[in-house]
Amino acid sequence: MAVAIGLRLVAAEEVDAVAVAALVNRAYGRYRHLFAGQRTSPSELLEEAGPGARFILAEEEGRLVGSALLARAERFIEPDMLGPSGTSRPAVVDVSIDHPWRDALYFGMAAVESGWTGRGIGKQLVALAETLARREGFRAVALGTVREFGLVEYYERLGFRVFHEVDHPAGHWDFLVPHRYCEMVKVL
Predict the structure, then answer these.
(1) Which residue range is the domain that position 58 belongs to?
(2) For 23-55, how does the pLDDT look when each residue is reduced to its tens digit (9 = 90+)?
(3) What are the two backbone dihedrals, phi and then psi, of residue 14, each rounded to the nearest 5 degrees?
(4) Residue 108 forms beta bridges with which residues?
(5) Global pTM?
(6) Measured distance CA(142)–CA(153) in Å, rounded
(7) CA dihedral of residues 151, 101, 125, 181 (deg, nearest 10)
(8) Which of 22, 136, 169, 174 is deepest in the core (most CB within 10 A)?
(9) Number of domains, the chain
């Protein structure tokens, strides 16, 4: 059931990094059986966001219940992550031309407060990201997720497609289990 919440866009340098990092860590806490440690700290949140980034904040009566990072997707392209899912990567790729995240708005570190999931907040965050991407001339919205979180299917229902997956062993990114990182894109 969707709830009426307020969404606002805040520049990364103006966001309450302590509050947003705490929300992100609580949201990622639902994956404790897969992931050890915390997802981010206030300083890591701002470093990951980078220059020119923004956050969508979802609030209900002044209480932060959801958030998502928005930034230029090219900032998050990793050369060793190029190539469509299940295919060999070319030796040399011009990411400015060939990568699906080229000219895309990155939607990352999405978090919804425990107890608020299943109420449409995530869909509202994605919808606003898509609206902003269109308005600002981006050709797509991009994101990355770990398949074991169970969110690939959720994002596929919202129109995203996986274009690359890579296996990682336990221990990578503080994961307790082997996991698959998926890069996804929705062309607008």
Answers:
(1) 6-187
(2) 999 999 898 888 887 889 999 999 999 999 999
(3) -110, -5
(4) 69
(5) 0.88
(6) 15
(7) 20
(8) 22
(9) 1
